[in-house]
Amino acid sequence: MLTLDAQAEAFALRRHFTISRGTKTETIVVVASVSDGTATGRGECGPNARYDETPESVVSDILSMAPALAAGMTRADLQDAMPPGAARNAIDCALWDYEARSSGMPAWTRAGLPALDPIVTAFTLSADGAAEMSREAAANADRPLLKLKLTGEDDLARVRAVRAAAANVRLIVDANEAWDIETYNSLVPALKTLGVELIEQPFPAGDDSALATLERSIPVCADEAFRDRTSLPGLKGKYDLVNIKLDKTGGLTEALVACAAARADGFGVMVGCMVGSSLAMAPAMLVAQGADFVDLDGPLLLAQDRAPGLSVDGSRLALPPSGLWG
Question: Are 84 and 20 in contact (CB under 8 A)?
Answer without folding.
Answer: no
